[in-house]
Amino acid sequence: MKDDVLTFDVRVFSLDTIKRALYRFADKCSFDIQLKDNEITVTFTSKVVDDLPVKIKNEVLDQDLRDTLAKETSNIRTLILANAFSNTGLIQ
Predict the structure, then answer these.
(1) Which residue among 24, 54, 82, 91 is least packed, with the fewest CB closer than 10 Å?
(2) Domain ranges of the chain
(3) Which comes out higher in pLDDT, residue 28 or 63?
(4) 52: which residues sit within 8 A by CB, 6+ positions away?
(5) Which are the contacts of 60, defined by CB distance < 8 A and separation ≥ 6?
(6) Is the pLDDT of residue 92 over 60?
(7) Residue 60 pLDDT > 60, yes or no?
(8) Interior CA angle at 72 toward 66 and 73, to 5°?
(9) Which of 48, 9, 13, 57 is nearest to 30 (CA)?
(10) Which CATH architecture group holds 3-86?
(11) pTM to 2 decimals?
(12) Residue 85: what pLDDT?
């Protein structure tokens, strides 16, 4: 087993996004996260998945996109929920 290291720029990916991505692989390995200056460094060891670094990078991108879409559609989701609840009689 060898340690793998991934480095992410905090100006591109938030710590929350990286944590969400790493959580998806928590059953396969453990992670050490270091934040220094503008870099987040993730060190991990896995004995199960050979291409884990690539999968983690893809998952970070996926989580970042999910976060962006959630922010961009927040107002629309609020309107849809408000409309749904207004038609139920729960809100008067």
Answers:
(1) 91
(2) 3-86
(3) 63
(4) 4, 25, 28, 29, 44, 46
(5) 8, 13, 17, 18, 21
(6) no
(7) yes
(8) 90
(9) 48
(10) 2-Layer Sandwich (3.30)
(11) 0.76
(12) 80
Q: Which two tokens stand for residue 52?
A: 């884990």
CA distance 22 to 58: 11
Long-range contacts at 29-38 (CB < 8 A, ≥ 24 apart)? 35/10, 38/9, 38/10, 38/11
Q: DSSP readout, the chain?
A: --EEEEEEETTTS-HHHHHHHHHTTTTTEEEEEEEETTEEEEEEEESS-TTHHHHHHHHHHHHHHHHHHHHHTHHHHHHHHHHHHHTTTS--
Structure tokens belonging to residue 3: 């340690």
Tokens of 24: 């998806």
Per-residue pLDDT at 15:
96
